[in-house]
Design brief:
314 residues; mainly alpha; three-stranded mixed sheet; two-stranded antiparallel sheet; 5 strands; 4% strand
Length: 314
Amino acid sequence: MEIKNHNSSTSGFTLLGISSNPHLQKPLFAIFLIMYLVTLVGNVLIILTIHSDSRLHTPMYFFLSNLSFMDICFTTVIVPKMLVNFQSDTKSISYMGCLVQMYFFMAFGNTDSYLLASMAIDRLVAICNPFHYDVIMNPQRCLLMLLGSCTISHLHSMLRVLLMSRLSFCASHVIKHFFCDTQPVLKLSCSDTSSNQMVVMTETLAVIVTPFLCILFSYLRIIITVLTIPSAAGKWKAFSTCGSHLTIVVLFYGSIIYVYFRPLSMYSMVKDRVATLMYTVVTPMLNPFIYSLRNKDMKMGIRKLRFGIHSWKE
């Protein structure tokens, strides 16, 4: 019997999770709880460090603090529900809860993507046009880039969720994933999803590929500019300012390209879960370490924050 999404008779979905093995539920709960707490603490530390140190009130760290905030929101959309399901026998999620999770997952994930592109533009201007950096990357323009990133991402999510809400589902409501992602939910639909997939793919290409191409273009220009620097020390100094950002870009986009830019017929449950875990849980957890351990200004800022907190306690 076919069940329409918009009908109240839909009881919701069951999330299969990372593993159905009952003996792995508690160990997985402990592992992902620790990872989530590390993500929260690390990204909050980045935000507090940037806002408390006036030397870090620059466009690059403005985008970094917002990236950390989005990473907190991004993982919070997914991990708490996943942790609850590790301790639950039903592992259920309501139909509306599934759509809400899908909406905010895409909104925060796409905002991350645009913020990474904004950071690439910032590095491009800093290295290729340093004398006009303060004029080009002024606070008003940075704020507009942030607002534009959020607006485009939320419009994208709204369109995607509206398309998904028009689908019908048959007997099986078991989502073979640990959250409500597009491809696993589409696999359950007994509607004709060909037009839906075409729109989703086209719109995803526009929303995700655009910032990715922006990053590629920025780094191509940076490489060309750096190669013209005569001294090896100058080249290393220029490249070192991009190292942390480039590391995050590779981790984030590498897994996203694998998950989303392939036909539905090539969907692999195990490989998809591993790749999705990489950009939803692992990358947001690693961001604070990558940016703080490889950045002298951030190290000094963290020490200053720690000293300030210690002095306040005394």
